């Protein structure tokens, strides 16, 4: 059974896609992130942030899973955590 916070974490990318606009984020952050990630438009930064949130949600789902399959469960967990780490460092460093 999933907790309420994990459920909201998993649906939050859909909420962000529906509600988040360019005007909600500081122009400085949008411009710096656009340059750092080599993106062409500011809206691409928002899409990248939403994708990163989705990756984090998938990793959290694996981390808080009540059971982990011995054969490939740990390797899937490691892969999800590595993907989350890479996505977060690209956006915030």
Description:
This protein is an all-alpha fold. The chain has one domain (4-92). Helices cover 73% and strands 0% of the residues. The chain is built from 4 helices and no strands.
Highlighted features:
4 helices; mainly alpha
Order of helices and strands: HHHH
How large is the count of helical segments?
4
- Look at the structure and give the mean pLDDT: 88
Overall strand count:
0
Instruction: Please indicate the percent range of residues in DSSP E strands (runs of 2 or more).
Output: under 5%
| Helical proportion, percent range | over 70%
Rough shape?
flat
Q: For the record, give the distance between the C-alpha atoms at the N and C termini, rounded to a whole number.
A: 35 Å
The number of distinct structural domains comes to 1
Q: Low-confidence stretches at least 5 residues in length (pLDDT < 50)? A: none
Radius of gyration: 15 Å
Which structural class do you get from the secondary structure elements? mainly alpha
Main β sheet profile: none
